[in-house]
Amino acid sequence: MNDAHPQPPVERGPSGLKARARRVLAHLDAVLPDVDSLYGDLHEHPELSGHEARTAAALAKRLEAAGYTVSRDFGGHGVVGLLRNGDGPTVLLRGDMDALPVEERTGLPYASHVRTKDGEPVMHACGHDVHTACLAGTAALLARSRDAWRGTVMVVGQPAEETLQGARAMMDAGLYARFGTPDAVLGQHTAPLPVGAFMHREGVAMMGSASVRIRLFGRGAHGAQPELSVDPVVLGASVVLRLQTIVSREVPPLEPAVVTVGHFQAGSRANVIPDEALLEVTVRTADDAVQARVLAAIERIVKGEAAAAGAPKPPQVEVMASTPVNRNDPALLRRVRAAHAEWFGRDALVPGVLATASEDFPRFAQGPEHPVPTAYWFVGVTPPHAWNAAPGTTPQQKVTHLPGPHSPLYAPDRAGSLRKGCESLTVAALSCLHGGEAPRDH
Ligand SMILES: [Zn+2]
Ligand SMILES: [Zn+2]
User: Fold this and answer.
1) Domains in the chain and their CATH numbers?
2) How far, in Å, is the centroid of ligand 2 from the Cα of 316?
3) What would the pLDDT profile of 321-347 be if each residue is shown by its tens digit?
4) Which one of 198, 378, 404, 440 has the fewest CB atoms closer than 10 angstroms to its CB?
């Protein structure tokens, strides 16, 4: 990242932030009951990507009650709440709202029993209910303590993160043209670290991803007469093997990259050579240029293999969804991490590890003229008893034994996650906003 774009001004003074955070978070106990009831409601009533109408309405209602100017249905079910509070930077706080097609097995009293009309189970297995509830809580805290900060808070409830479509839809709808380009964008995600722990990583926090659908065309025939066919099963098998050479032969060995063929479908019975084969591939990289290179290699290999097989028509190679790497702005990330260290203590911070999972959060960095600084961090949500009982001594060892995001057993510590999630987002926001009036003596 370059330093050409404006950074939100730094609040100087060792205790400036802590004193302001104390004033704002003095309201936390008053706000938490509503955060908890929103969380319970969202957890019991999860909605799949693109269907977040109820969740969005619940968030919008709270933002409005807190005094925000609210826009609904922005880029799908997106919610935007603005609170202008004098001169100062604009800080975008982003929370994602969608759930996953997972059948909950936590056994919690507030577990989801929701199914779609098609019978698909739905669960907040990625903790987006925590994100949304903490977003509402932070919005309420900032609204109640407007004398402690100056600037503009832009609260964004984002739909369809799991399908990597929601952030793009909100940006395509003109988020920054309509509401202004923020000076900083902040987002947080739950993680199976112990509740009260936080993880930040300078540079790339999460890998970029792309999913690719490949349609291979052959010529069907009787299984006993392969000479009359162009067999798409054999063609597909060649493609699968050849794709393995991208990471091993084309990507530099020190560049992390993953190419996985997760879906390969062709034919219906043993004695019929089908006409077509369908492959779906996921690509993960820690560098957008590497992603572009891998995608070009996939297309080249698929076309080459189809030509080698004598396919009757060229294959279709389509990128269905993609997201860039989630790269933290170094200065902004350091600012947020320092603020968290000041508020929670240095011992609460664990060293950052590159996540191979992906996020569409980095879409918010794509400002109209220059990149917008973004910072994204992880909030531990594992209950203390579960953390202590997990085998291993290091966080990395323990985490492998604990249910994490997308697991049907993912069960954040309810009270701890909501309290710490509100605190971390609030403190991070304050670290970017200007200070308010000095507190009056009383
Ligand atoms: Zn997820
Ligand atoms: Zn998630």
Assistant:
1) 16-207+325-435 (3.40.630.10), 212-323 (3.30.70.360)
2) 30
3) 999 999 999 999 999 999 999 999 999
4) 440
